[in-house]
Amino acid sequence: MKHEELTKDIIGAAMAVLNELKPGLDEKLYENALVIELQQRGHTVEQQREFPVHYRSRFIGKLVPDLIVDGQVITDPKVVTAFNDTHLAQMLG
Predict the structure, then answer these.
(1) pLDDT tens per residue across span 19-32
(2) What confidence score (pLDDT) does residue 71 get?
């Protein structure tokens, strides 16, 4: 797996946030808490950075990932009981 150690630390941070806040809150609150947790673990985190998307040299919109950790891993926190095909497509896109 690419960036395996970083990915493990991100997952550990997400679990720490979920264990402390418990299920049931708005997804944005978990995202904000995850930023704090990752920063306390020594990571740099960009939140809601915008990337222009072009098609045939024409601007068609923006891609805005939730988090980019250490400039290497895009992180999209989800608070769901199970992932469905839509969640997976969003993460892969």
Answers:
(1) 999 888 888 999 99
(2) 96
Q: Which long-range contacts (CB under 8 A, 24 or more apart) does 4-8 make?
A: 6/43, 6/69, 6/70, 6/72, 6/73, 7/73
Cα(26)–Cα(56) distance, rounded to whole angstroms? 37
Q: Is the whole-model pTM more than 0.90?
A: no
Q: What DSSP line would sit under 4-54, residue for residue? A: HHHHHHHHHHHHHHHHHH-S-S-HHHHHHHHHHHHHHTT--EEES--EEEE
> What's residue 85's pLDDT?
73
